[in-house]
Amino acid sequence: MVTMPGGGWVQIRSADDPDSLRGEGLSFVVLDECAFMKESAWSESLRPALSDREGEAMFISTPKGRNWFFYRWQAGKLDGGEWASWQFPTSDNPYINLEEIEKARNGLPERVFRQEYLAEFIDDAGGIFRGVRACATAIEQKAPVEGHEYIFGVDWGKSNDFTVITVIDATLRAVVAMDRFNQIDYALQRRRLMALSERFKPEQIIAESNSMGGPIIEQLQRDGLPIQPFLTTNASKVKAIDALALAFERMDISLIEDEILIAELQAYEAQRLPSGTLRYGAPEGMHDDCVMSLALAWHGVATPKPHYIAFL
Q: Where are the domains of the chain?
């Protein structure tokens, strides 16, 4: 809290727990990224606190679909009295280079760009992957096609999660096989991955290295598998998921009609943290193991491989 010479004060508070915002009366409140707050933070905590002093409020946020912030913004457009609303795209900011915005336009899914850079309220902003069912046109392969290159993505299962191995035919850019299982020991997980590897002879296996993934990967490397670790952080996860979302949007990828995979992709969602960063994941009560396995495999397909030049 910062106390001003005249006796006033400014305080920054988190809205993670709306009840923590209850307290003494306020003269002015700013809700930053309020579309990602619970509505109760405003209606049950901050709005009553403004009544003591007949205070004012300012709502600032990137849109998040048509949630309570959208209706508050819409009211400002309609009532013309108590509330006023404005909407500005990133291009209105004189401190951001227009070339950077164009790079984002070309490199991000349209839904993400429209929401994050154009400040548009997108109806399906909760969903990440668009056109999933339309991309379910691939044919399952029981054996590799001669001359084709294959990439695996592996998301290791923990106690209640599933281990998922996704096989992408990189030549066709198509998911052509999956193995999904749980409640088996790590030795058997290794053997199942090795068996699938013997069948398809992948160029790369991209596997999550977090937690118990590290020791399993080390053993598989000793076994001679072309496995590469992928350290999952929020930043690396966002990058991989955005790349996969862009592939669906451009229909650069196809997949077998696996109902579990399709359901996970359609349900996958984004939440904005108080820090302003995005967090991707499955809705409560659902799994995202298929999504992550696919994202890792696609990361291997989409990431340019290094080229080596020999100097004689």
A: 2-78, 88-125, 133-302
Asked whether the predicted pLDDT for residue 310 surpasses 90, the reply is no
User: Considering the chain, what is the average pLDDT of its residues?
Assistant: 87
Contacts of 181 (CB under 8 A, 6+ apart): 157, 162, 163, 189, 192
CA–CA gap between residue 21 and residue 27 (Å, rounded): 14
Q: Phi, psi at residue 179, to the nearest 5°? A: -130, 125
Contact 150, 200 (CB under 8 A): yes
The position carrying tokens 């009544």 is 51
Q: Residue 158: is its pLDDT beyond 60?
A: yes
The whole-model pTM stands at 0.64
Alpha-carbon distance 53 to 13, whole Å? 19
Q: In sequence order, which residues have a C-beta less than 8 Å from that of residue 18 and are 6 or more positions away? A: 37, 38, 40, 41, 44, 45
> Residue 76, class by beta-carbon neighbours within 10 Å (0-12 exposed, 13-18 middle, 19+ buried)?
middle
152 phi/psi in degrees, rounded to 5: -105, 150
CATH of domain 133-302: 3.30.420.240
| CB of 214 closer than 8 Å to CB of 230 | no
Neighbours of 131 (CB within 10 A): 11
